[in-house]
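Ticket reopened. Same input as before:
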Amino acid sequence: MTNEHIELHRYTHTINEKQVEALKNVIGINDAGNLVPPTYATVIDFHGGMSFEKLTDLLAFDPSCVLHGSQQYKYISPIFTGDTIEAAVFLTGKTTKRGRTFVKLETKYNRGGECVMISRSTLIEQKGDRYV
Amino acid sequence: MFEPISVLITREQIKQYAAASGDFNPIHTDPEAAKKAGLKDCIVHGMLVMAMGSSALREWGIQSLKEYDVRFQAMTYPDELLFVKGEWTDRKAGKGNIMVENEAGEIKMKGTFTA
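Engineering reply: fixed in the latest deploy. New output:
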């Protein structure tokens, strides 16, 4: 795994109630609070500026062959509906093993210039035997 | 150990999760894309399994997290009966383990949390 810290993308997203409710409904959370669920960063990313298409384009991954290997969140400060979050995504490592490419990403989520959450993930490009 | 929580994720729920999260990776909804990646069928989003883990943590009374860290160890297929299991490893420090496995004991997700 190479060690690097290359900025891939930056985006700003304001958390809206409808999107929070939609996620809560699917994962079976039905409280009335305005704290977002622990895995809400996926919505900030995919709906906020790092769409799946954008992500695979930046990584030069075949969009049909992407797996999620690991995910870590560090929660520094609670995040609420209505917050405006600025996210910065960095590529922190890349390696190829037995035909699979592994990348490590780190995303820092800031609110008003202060870091409120950090995500670290491993994504894998896996091409099956029948890949054409 | 906390009381294990059973979960079953349907194809419909996968579609709803894709729309809610914006994660439109086709291996979750398009069987042809899944085959291209070497999978036998569409798989559940790892992030949906992780989210079900966080819902289990809430049910166990853990409301506020400082860290949540998991590895996705095996593919989760639609309609597989899953069990979310967890325990404190250091109650005072708020540290614990969490895992998701199927009926055969195949571990889908394994990780740690800090409350």
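Chain A has one domain: 6-126. The first helix of chain A runs from residue 17 to 27. Please confirm and we'll close it.
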